[in-house]
Amino acid sequence: MPENTDALILDAGGAPATTPDGTAVPMDKRDKPRSLWNDAWHDLSRKPIFYISALVILFLIVISFWPSLIASQDPLQCNLINSQNGPSSGHWFGYDQQGCDVYTRTVYGARASVEVGIFSTLGVAVLGALLGGLSGYFGGWLDAIISRVSDIFFGIPILLGGVVFLSAVKGGSVLTVSTFIILLGWPQLARIARGAVITAKEQDYVLAAKALGAGHGRIMLRHIAPNALAPVIVWSTIALGTFISLEATLSFLGVGLKPPAVSWGIDISAAADQIRNAPHMLLWPAGALSVTVLAFILLGDAVRDALDPKLR
């Protein structure tokens, strides 16, 4: 028997485990317990839909910051002579009613939509997770106040609220639309975070930390937050696509982003009246919006399946 049995894997009887040829198996070769995040990545890495949606999203982010990589023209450079002309050599998507190149505007339109989606999701995630986490952890009067405030915001339809709120704001911008979405979008995530924190704080490891005298900050950051983060990430991933769609809807209604901003919603609104005469004006920005929203939803579904042990 080897001298240092501590470095070997022991079998059920307490003896060092061996391979079929009789060689002892070192401890560093044993299967180590994996965390939720390791298991989630292992599950995601086996799903083609995860890679497809992630590549689409990565491509959208790249062209959002560097649209000139695939579009060399100016989206605001228009010529009425080309008004509603169909696809041609060098202008694959044709021209819109103002004589602007539809391909260029479709590429540049990704920037506003992605910016609104990212800023809104980050804002909602921070505000909702913070308020929901405090509500679930401390309970009592703080929970009652935050819950009643969230109920008030839940009673405001987000689309109707956007029409009313943004109609009173002059010069719609990415910051304005994102701020509105954050103000009305946080209650749902707050409830999800609250439920996750309530579940986590009843676990034995949290009770043990309290018994050892750990403070509220340490318990929330070291023990509760990592275990309550999964539903927040899943909801945020799916919500990002929803917020992009909401921005396009508000811009379509004329209360979101406004010209000279370049947005898929603005282009869809301008093309809606010309769908019979020039369907290409509507096809490309609407298609880009649909693919973007679908990519985020599919990515969110894949992440949800990976982070939920019950679905494995």
TrEMBL record:
It comes from Actinacidiphila bryophytorum. This is Oligopeptide transport system permease protein. The chain crosses the membrane at residues 49-66, 118-140, 152-169, 228-253, 282-303. It is found in: Cell membrane. GO terms for biological process: transmembrane transport. Residues 11-30 are annotated as: Disordered. The keyword Cell membrane applies. Keywords: Cell membrane, Membrane, Transmembrane, Transmembrane helix, Transport. PANTHER family: ABC TRANSPORTER PERMEASE PROTEIN, OLIGOPEPTIDE TRANSPORT SYSTEM PERMEASE PROTEIN APPC. It holds the Pfam family OppC_N. Belongs to the binding-protein-dependent transport system permease family. Residues 110-300 form the ABC transmembrane type-1 domain. InterPro entries: BP-dependent_transpt_permease, MetI-like, MetI-like_sf, OppC_N. It comes from the Bacteria. Its main location: membrane. It is a multi-pass membrane protein. GO terms for cellular component: plasma membrane.
